[in-house]
Amino acid sequence: xxxxxxxxxxxxxxxxxxxxxxxxxxxxxxxxxxxxxxxxxxxxxxxxxxxxxxxxxxxxxxxxxxxxxxxxxxxxxxxxxxxxxxxxxxxxxxxxxxxxxxxxxxxxxxxxxxxxxxxxxxxxxxxxxxxxxxxxxxxxxxxxxxxxxxxxxxxxxxxxxxxxxxxxxxxxxxxxxxxxxxxxxxxxxxxxxxxxxxxxxxxxxxxxxxxxxxxxxxxxxxxxxxxxxxxxxxxxxxxxxxxxxxx
Length: 247
What we know:
Elements: E1 5-7, H1 11-18, H2 22-25, E2 32-35, E3 40-47, E4 52-60, E5 78-80, H3 91-96, E6 98-103, E7 105-114, E8 146-154, E9 161-168, E10 171-177, H4 181-184, E11 190-191, H5 199-203, H6 210-213, E12 224-227
Parallel strand pairs: 4-10, 5-10
Antiparallel strand pairs: 1-2, 1-7, 3-4, 6-9, 7-8, 8-12, 9-10, 10-11
């Protein structure tokens, strides 16, 4: 799955990597070190009117187009690639509303043992309701419970990449796929990361069949991983210390 990610790159780097209008990328918010679901994030889509890529801000957590009232529905932060073509929540979006979600790193959690205490320098902050969701690691170690160690995943050199995504209205979701052997050591899912050479094909409005779209998600890039402090368990934490390697 993908429950937290980073976007530290500036607007110029974003414009160059994604072939965007520099003026659009200049409006990019400041560097983010711990982006969480329900927050507003930059999304790249194809604008049929201009015939160009556009950068828009959308809420992370897709609400299906047929939902009349979003309140009773759980926000769909992730979408499994294997069921995009069949699930009603994603079927139409796969056909006509695909996007790229810029990132330069993401976090994953792995159970490493049992906690003996609940103390620690990063454990006193108020609990955020999203931090208790499965797979994101506990807000703080509890005696006798398994501890989930956060790991930071990024490209060598901290380069930009994109998650494949879908959008509906003002909302979006990140697509996940089966993990590479490297990522399988952390989790049974990983975000789908198309190659830069496949960005145009993924956004191409002429393409609409799953048979021609899903293979674009089968070429994940080389990634590097290292452990970071449990500070990132809190959605409120959003500074450079989040990505500091834990020695």
